[in-house]
Specification:
Layout: E1 2-4, E2 18-19, E3 24-30, E4 37-46, E5 57-61, E6 64-65, E7 73-77, E8 83-89, H1 91-94, E9 100-110, H2 114-117, H3 126-131, E10 138-147, H4 150-160, H5 164-213
Parallel strand pairs: 2-10
Antiparallel strand pairs: 1-3, 3-8, 4-5, 4-9, 5-6, 7-8, 9-10
Domain ZP: 1-128
Pfam family, one: Zona_pellucida
Keywords: Disulfide bond, Membrane, Signal, Transmembrane, Transmembrane helix
Length: 214
């Protein structure tokens, strides 16, 4: 069993998948060698690696989708070759309760013709599917699939893009530094000119005293 990122089943996940609740999961179940027919009998999800976990969500049963909404679950290929393909949205079996999920499928190898292996998922044939004798099946699993939190993206955004208040405070700080610098220069200038004025005043007093004495 393999997971893909696109509906063409070309971009394969090579790391642990991390998906948001509205993302689609593209699943391929295949066998080697490819000279026989493969049919998926049942697929379900669990919050751990145990396929027999008490918490299960079945989305394919009797080789047919349990869900009727095509946008939520679509079985593109089953019982028509050495591989089965389906797509399902993440939120259908994760919700907001679990961080990890594991997928499991029961598969059957068909030694007969393609027509006999292909499931009939019409509503009229539902009772016949339940009566069908299922040969010994094999279970394949995949996991974990990580649920990506929405707020984690927001926190990254807050770190990379400072809020408006930061720019406002920064601007006020720059203005305050400029004003402080101007007043500092004026104060230093006044301090440098003070001794000269004092010396001029002293010379003027001496000259005045000399005139009085004469």
């Amino acid at each position: 069993m393999m997971l893909y990122k696109d509906e063409d089943f070309e971009d394969k996940w090579t790391t642990v998948p991390s998906l948001m609740l509205d993302d689609n999961i593209y699943v391929k179940v295949f066998m080697i060698p490819a000279n026989l027919m493969l049919r998926v009998e049942r697929c379900w999800a669990t919050p751990n690696h145990d396929p027999y976990s008490n918490i299960q969500y079945t989305f394919i049963k009797d080789s047919c989708p349990v869900l009727t909404n095509y946008q939520t679950l679509a079985v593109m290929k089953n019982g028509r070759g050495p591989e089965a393909l389906f797509r399902i949205q993440m939120f259908k079996f994760v919700g907001s309760s679990y961080r990890d999920i594991f997928l499991h499928c029961n598969i059957q190898i068909c030694h007969s013709s393609a027509g006999a292996c292909r499931p009939n998922c019409s509503s009229e044939d539902a009772s016949a599917r339940r009566r069908r004798d299922v040969a010994l099946s094999h279970t394949v699993s995949y996991g974990p699939i990580k649920r990506r939190e929405v707020h984690s993206d927001k926190s990254i955004l807050n770190i990379s893009v400072p809020p408006v208040e930061t720019f406002v405070l920064g601007g006020l700080l720059v203005v305050l530094l400029l004003i402080t610098g101007v007043f500092g220069r004026l104060w230093l200038k006044s301090r440098r000119s003070y001794p000269t004025q004092e010396a001029q005043l002293t010379l003027s007093n001496i000259h005045h005293i000399s005139e009085v004495a004469s």
